[in-house]
Amino acid sequence: MPRNNLSAQGFTRTEAGLPGAAAMTVHESVLDGIGNTPLVRLTRLAASLRPRIYAKLEFQNIGGSVKDRAALSMIRAAERDGLLGPGGTVVEGTSGNTGVGLSLVAAHLGYRAVVFAPAATAAEKIRLLRAYGAEVHLVADFVPRSHPDHLANRAARFAEATPGAWLAQQYDNPANPGAHVESTGPEIWRDTDGTVTHLVASVGTGGTITGTGRFLKQASGGSVQVVAADPDHSAYGGGDGAAKYVEGAGHAVHPDSAEDIWPQAFDTSLVDRYVRVSDKESILSARKAAREEGLLIGGTAGTALAAALRLAAELDESHTIVVIIPDSGRNYLSTYFDDGWLTSAGFLRPAAADGTAGSLL
Ligand code: PMP
């Protein structure tokens, strides 16, 4: 029984079923709202399965995703190394959650934040970065890594030309996986009382799976199995690297790229197994989690969940699976949860003229 179970700690629930004041948490600053996310047991989706499956809710980080941890860790490491100081500028090429994490930590600590994002980035995400005060520059979509307009190159040139600027480089920054060695891994070990047997996570930079996997393998004497949930086509799991739908995970390789650059943040030697998940299965899993479990999760969480459910079917009561939920479905209400988008993306058969509802293809 996990130690953070409320009743095990002697907390009583109110008549309405709420935890009651005894379980309140106080953070002394916004940055303390990063980390210490809960594990939630999946009791509906896993009802007919034998292992226990716990979802680690990374959308409970204060900026809404797992990347808050990496952002804080990278900024703190840069300060320690003398690369970032008062009046400094945080720079990164990213459209996603890392930009949000860096922007919120920069805002809190008084740094300027400059984000280079692909032109196709959803308007809502750009607004979100700007809401935290970040400056956003839009750059060409999906160009080869060697092209001067690739967002990593644009961000690097800007950082070089700007006094006091520091480039986060999440793909190669050891403080990215380091965040998870220091926090995500220990939290899972503590909260499962060391009973975790499998970690399932999707892989973007590889920071989450590398840091968390490294800690859990060390803590368990090597017995925890690390399972990478990888989108179809992703080059991580041996796919062709063709561009994909599910945002935030997998490894796409531009066909004109002379060389394939793998992130240093991803230590592939830690991965025991890749489970390949199609975009459709990822989206279906995310939608099922919302409708059947009451848990609104994003597309890469859907990828990881689909892999965890497939894995669980092979295991028994002696196993405990922890699946990482990188962000919330709230970020994808106009995509994976929107029937119009799904239809135009080819995932949903349109509703028939007689009013018969559309169905997922
Ligand atoms: N899911 C989402 C939605 C993300 O934004 C990311 C980060 N790119 C990941 C999963 C993967 O996390 P990591 O970079 O730590 O591998």
From TrEMBL:
<keyword id="KW-0663">Pyridoxal phosphate</keyword>
<protein>
    <submittedName>
        <fullName>Cystathionine beta-synthase</fullName>
    </submittedName>
</protein>
<dbReference type="GO" id="GO:0044272">
    <property type="term" value="P:sulfur compound biosynthetic process"/>
</dbReference>
<dbReference type="GO" id="GO:0009069">
    <property type="term" value="P:serine family amino acid metabolic process"/>
</dbReference>
<dbReference type="GO" id="GO:0006534">
    <property type="term" value="P:cysteine metabolic process"/>
</dbReference>
<comment type="similarity">
    <text>Belongs to the cysteine synthase/cystathionine beta-synthase family.</text>
</comment>
<feature type="domain" description="Tryptophan synthase beta chain-like PALP">
    <location>
        <begin position="31"/>
        <end position="327"/>
    </location>
</feature>
